[in-house]
Amino acid sequence: MAAGLNDLQRRYQSRAGFLFVYIAEAHAADEWPMGDPIVTGRPVQQPVTVAQRITEARHFAQHFSLRWPLAVDAPELGDPFMRVYSPWPTRFYVLREGKLQFIAQPNEEHMYELAAVELALANAVGEQQEQ
After folding, report:
1. Averaged in consecutive runs of 10 residues, what is the pLDDT profile of the chain (131 residues)?
2. Residue 71 pairs with which residues in a beta bridge?
3. Which among 19, 64, 100, 119 is placed 20 to 30 Å from 4, CA to CA?
């Protein structure tokens, strides 16, 4: 999926800002040990500090070749991004002038259709969807 996300950013970066917010671990080895070693190649503990989450976010971005600007939610502050936007486990948003325009919903297979995200992004920047 990162290749598709990087391509989307490349095509729209002159007309839209992009930000990837790294939130709490979905399957931390110390909470719900399921899948992480398979996906990331190593077990991941749930970060309890911003510094730990930054380390995991950087590893994630490198492992998946994600080129978006990266931010992290602050565990010490009770994960405010997660509280406001409910991004668990993954969500895509399109905002325009500070107002939420679109929230991607997963399909029956718990995956996201990037075409829907791109359509919402194209609408937000006021142009026809790019091919």
Report:
1. 87 94 82 59 84 92 91 96 85 92 86 89 77 46
2. 21
3. 100
